[in-house]
């Protein structure tokens, strides 16, 4: 059995810490067994290791999350990257083709799909293994895992089974998405299960659908034709058309940490970052990524969350509504983690004349480097405030250190590799300061160094 972890979404219900570049699964607000801060994806990946499933798992994600995944899980994790976001059906189809044509999986191999961020114990992943046997035994198109409800929640989707078939799995009758609490009570009386987003299929079930649509079943071919895949959910394209679906009940611990209310229930302490909570305050939390302290007095059952993207003060019961208020904010992420380190936006200004100025503080880890890149709409000035490294501009290498100021004109190929931990203040000036103005020639330092030393021909932009 192979597993595919789906990593997507912006997680705006956990604004201001989560954004388009740093979804909720990457927030380091949970504690591991040693008391270290870990993210949801780090916690899940460790559980996969403990249940001997990590070597059989890959992550399907968008390009914007690749750096974050490799930073948190290491460079060896297998990642399938969407060339563009097109919902869950295209992402799952691409992962299936990757397993078939790149990893060489047989067409009768069972593939399990699950979110990258469930909050569960290890028994959950052992139960995921049972999907393979149940799918083969039943001959169904799809096998889902459903969580036995502990209360009539209106936040989750429900799987409603037919009458018991005497097997250890249930045959699915229909689905109900986010019913009222009264409806949920009635569904639970019918042995309904929470839909936790875990399901499995035989690889040929998806490959055959791609063949029927006239789409490639080799990975490179599907990447080139990815835009032809329907921009729809897996539920719409596959689940609703399946002839037989079974569900495997799971009675262990499961929680979706998708809101501040549920997340703070599992955090190791009431304060993360700089902050003070007054005496006699109950069930309140501070999560602070800023360098200024937060003081919380006299308010019970609230969350104060602060990041470079904004500040949230909310009653916990109202925290589920955050997304509807911040969806319209837009704008660039003010903080991102990358494979080389992280950056924080200090200031952004767009002048009436049309030119823009963006100031960033960057931290580059020792031994890491930027991609070899070029911009056509902006120039940059770097001031090195900490550390030393090797700077490259137009194939020329030079040593740089604390106090150096570097000017990078328009259309100049450039990169930097940190010899020690480095911090840089970067000032961008140009007509349009956007991510799409980064044209990457090379990523690996060995290749960049080879170009600069003339061992291979330089890449032309």
Shape assignment: globular
CATH fold title of the largest domain: Spore Coat Polysaccharide Biosynthesis Protein SpsA, Chain A
End-to-end distance, in Å? 43 Å
Outline the biggest β-sheet: 6 strands, antiparallel
- Largest sheet, order of strands side by side? 20-21-22-29-24-27
Q: What helical percentage do the residues reach?
A: 10-25%
Could you give me the name of the CATH homologous superfamily of the largest domain?
Spore Coat Polysaccharide Biosynthesis Protein SpsA, Chain A
Question: Count the strands?
Answer: 30
Which runs of at least 5 residues are low in confidence (pLDDT < 50)? 456-461
Count of structural domains: 3
Structural account:
By secondary structure, the chain is α+β, with helices and mostly antiparallel strands. The protein folds into three domains: 254 residues, Spore Coat Polysaccharide Biosynthesis Protein SpsA, Chain A (Alpha-Beta Complex); 58 residues, no CATH class; 113 residues, Sandwich (Jelly Rolls). Helix content is 22%, strand content 34%. It is built from eleven helices and 30 strands. Strands 20-21-22-29-24-27 form a six-stranded antiparallel sheet. Helix 3 crosses helix 6. The radius of gyration is 24 Å and the shape is globular.
